[in-house]
Amino acid sequence: MAAALSGANTLAPRRRRGNPSSGRGWRSPAYLFLLPGFAVFSLVMIYPTVQALIMSLEKWSPAPGVENTFVGLANYAKAFGDPIFWRAMANSGVYTAVTVPGQIVLGLICAVALNRALAGRTAFRIMVYIPVITSWVVVSVLFKYLFATDGGLVNWLLADATSLMDQGVDWYNGRWTAMVAICGLGIWKGVGWTMLIFLAALQAVPESLYEAACVDGAQGWQQFWHITLPSIRRTTLFITIMLVIGAFNVFVSVQLTTNGGPANLTQVPLTYLYRQAFNFLDFGYGSAIAFMLTALIFALSIGQYSLGSKSAQDAAA
Amino acid sequence: MKSRRTIGIALAAISGLVAMAACSSPAPTQTSVSTPPSQSQPAGDATITYWHAYSADSQEITVLEKTVIPAFEAANPGVKVTSVPVPYDDLHQKLVTGIAGGELPDVVRSDIIWVPELANLGVLEPLDTAMGDFQAISQAVYPGPLATNKWKDHYYGLPLDTNTLVMLNNPAAFDKAGVKMPSTLKEFAGLADTFKAKDVALYADGNLNGWNVLPFIWSFGEDIVSPDVTKATGILHGPQSVAAIQALYALYRPGAIPAFVTQDGATDPADGFSQAKYATMMGGPWMYPILEGSFPDLKFEATMLPAGDGGSISVVGGEDIVMTSASKNKEAAAKFISYLLGEETQKEFAKIGQMPVLSSLAGDLTAIQPYYATFSEQLKTAKPRPATPAWTEMDTRLEAALQELFLGGGDVRKTLDSLAAEFDGLLAQYQ
Predict the structure, then answer these.
(1) Which of A199, B10, B43, B124 gives the lowest tally of CB atoms within 10 Å of its CB?
(2) Under CATH, which architecture does the A73-316 domain have?
(3) Do A275 and B396 touch (CB under 8 A)?
(4) Which of residues 27-66 of B touch A (CB under 8 A)?
(5) What is the pLDDT of residues B115-147, one digit of tens each?
(6) Complex ipTM more than 0.85, yes or no
């Protein structure tokens, strides 16, 4: 950290000497290099986003040549008064609260375990990572059958094979039992990714820190708590932000296992907006839901980043 | 810093303007931008794209791509047909995306319930004006399936295949319980306990939507909307509709209808049916090749749906064939549609469970497949689902309301009361 600080000090005077009009101003070649990338970004991100924003303010029809009616914030107001929308938001909150810590804890455990010299280490790493590269569609259908009421493997294990229960559970007949299956799928499929990122971070922790800690008498758990965790703090922040974004965008698994049912109990924002747009052709309402979700994720990401950066600075200080 | 911010604002403004310019590009004010057939390319040297949801689980796609299309291309030199199979569950979404993006194919095999919606969006070519032989074909097909193509003043398609649901029953389950398949709903429901004593569920189904529930409401003697499809109040919550839902709920509670009926297809009843865990399930003619393929040893029978006070009333299913307004090869597309409705093509598909729509083939049906006898009989009284663009949303709401009712045990009458009011609002949008 000291080296980093001294680096910052040596750079500071140079930055002050820079001439905005010749090197770092808007005529800087750097912007020219950025331009093609920004043009592509505008085309594939900004343009559709602006289109969707306009759509959310209209009663929009997909039909060719139809004049769309401007309805102001009516679609947003509709969402505020729609109990299914709020339930969908709550469900994605529950999904986030369960799957993000689940993936982080299990991913970190796997990473720490597989960071040691261990026979068959590569094979174990591949096994944990395989769910990440499998298709969401395939594993969602697989989980649908695993948790099926009649003939599902989970119920067979609980009721027939082990007699842990008298009879199987109607997993997809209740909000929370269905969320167990959906969250289980989310964690199972995501652990490999968090493990991989954590592994990279763990390998970057200098061995000298552990040696110094060892000299000071710190053992296994103390080393993990005082050396490993602080060293991978920024990685953890990155993983958390990415997982939260991903969790609020959960779609395929819910669409294919419960389709938001029964009775809309397991709707999440994306399945609900998909239904509004593509089943009911209410693209205006669907876009409004998309923007409200975007705003929430954006605020959460900024909040996490600020908190994470602040705590990293506090730790450094 | 200031200059960087200026650049950022400028670029944002430019991209915003680009977006707005794109949004405000001149748009035609008519709801349809169809090109008259005379302006489209002639039939020679044309490629037509055909979207359909023929099943890969049976021989449907093989027959289309290996037999029907090659025969059509041989008979129409220069015309090529590109077959695009789309899973049924994805086809509606693909059509909507295609409409929004202006990327529709020339010909679509559409579920009969989507035709009013697509016609209302102005993306279908009225076939009664686009096809020279429309009159002749329309007189050769059954009037019921033909009616599913009418929206306002035009016919936007022709029926391609028709079907209905009958009751499939597993004789092994009936033998186990020592009973016979009854002909009335009252007797049918009365068998629930007898089957339960043998660990068999009376009747299994995977969904509670209109396709699965309307036969019960109709057979009890009620409907869900008025004949002119303008209102549901006074009909959907009538005493017989309430009685029909109560009867289903009374079977669901003790497990005579397995719990997964509320799970929107999470469990396929065919698996348990094949093992005689469920005595009956509803099925269409397409189920024969699927069941024979998946469970070669299964013996099953088909009977008419058990009758209620309103008779034995099933639901009309099937597909229509439509041409899009955006097609650049309307003449070739019209030829392809005519070919699909030819006797030979209809017979070819009849062999694999696609029931023909030509009345002239009625006498040949049982010779082609003996199982068509029950379906032909059931079709005589079967009813179509309401022909309205609002049906998709009505159906979704019906299913969700019934799921809530079955899981929560609410008041059937109150549920149907509020559903009727919701349906009225949805139907009013298209009057």
Answers:
(1) B10
(2) Orthogonal Bundle (1.10)
(3) yes
(4) 27-33
(5) 999 999 999 999 999 999 999 999 999 888 898
(6) no
